[in-house]
């Protein structure tokens, strides 16, 4: 999960490089790109996901792309739009898996943005036990209260195999949910606040020193944003 802070007003400038060049170029190098989003509350923030089959394959794919001609040709234009590109989480599926499927507005990349409301929540957790508890006991309660499928990942504990691209230290759980619009999300959030099971979980997390951040995301035109469904296996590592 990569979260870029961009220079004010430069989101579209980055997309003019990212969409025609970097999506196909990274997939050709062996990565799989998932959701690509603009933060609805921070229009100068770009949030996106890419996946890998394994940590070794991640190293090979990143080495191939970042030493290849596409990145060399367009990196200056991309980097000129950015203030910070190091807010990166290295993730793996939870146990049991709560993986996403993939959808786009028309089934093909194009100018029509899928009008769904995507909500990402990132928990920063102090212990491995708390991470495991949230992704097992907490997940079904969260999903029941929200009334929609919840995709979820946790920190990949392996060493970063491509240190040229740093990742954040710590323990994290990330969830993604997809709603029809902001009104549907607001109704789901109210149910969550009123749910006694979720209140107990939230209290335990707070007492343990866990923190969380919720982001409301708008898919870009080329986003294959995650929608949790019964789907074929997806890459095991994201970052």
UniProtKB/TrEMBL annotation:
Region of interest (Disordered), residue spans: 209-239
Chain intervals with Polar residues compositional bias: 212-223
Gene3D superfamilies in UniProt: 3.30.70.100
Residues annotated as domain NIPSNAP: 1-95
Pro residues bias (residue ranges): 229-239
Pfam families on file: NIPSNAP
Source domain of life: Bacteria
InterPro entries registered for this protein in UniProt: Dimeric_a/b-barrel (IPR011008), NIPSNAP (IPR012577)
Protein name: NIPSNAP family protein
Source organism (scientific name): Micromonospora aurantiaca (nom. illeg.)
């Amino acid at each position: 999960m990569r979260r870029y802070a961009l220079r004010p007003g430069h989101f579209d400038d980055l997309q003019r490089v990212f969409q025609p060049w970097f999506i196909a170029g990274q997939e050709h190098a062996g990565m799989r790109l998932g959701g690509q989003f603009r933060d609805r509350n921070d229009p100068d923030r770009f949030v996106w996901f890419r996946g890998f089959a394994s940590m070794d394959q991640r190293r090979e794919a990143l080495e191939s792309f970042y030493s290849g001609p596409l990145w060399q040709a367009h990196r200056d234009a991309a980097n000129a739009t950015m203030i910070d590109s190091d807010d990166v989480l290295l993730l793996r599926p939870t146990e049991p898996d709560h993986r996403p499927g993939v959808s786009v507005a028309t089934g093909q990349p194009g100018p029509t943005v899928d009008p769904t409301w995507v909500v990402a929540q990132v928990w920063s957790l102090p212990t491995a036990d708390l991470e495991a508890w949230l992704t097992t006991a907490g997940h079904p309660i969260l999903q029941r209260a929200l009334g929609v499928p919840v995709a979820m990942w946790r920190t990949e504990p392996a060493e970063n195999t491509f240190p040229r691209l740093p990742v954040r230290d710590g323990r994290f759980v990330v969830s993604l949910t997809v709603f029809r619009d902001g009104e549907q999300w607001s109704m789901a959030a109210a149910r969550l606040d009123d749910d006694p099971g979720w209140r107990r979980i939230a209290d335990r997390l707070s007492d343990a020193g866990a923190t969380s951040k919720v982001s409301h995301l708008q898919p870009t035109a080329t986003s294959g944003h995650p929608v949790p469904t019964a789907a074929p296996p997806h890459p095991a590592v994201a970052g």
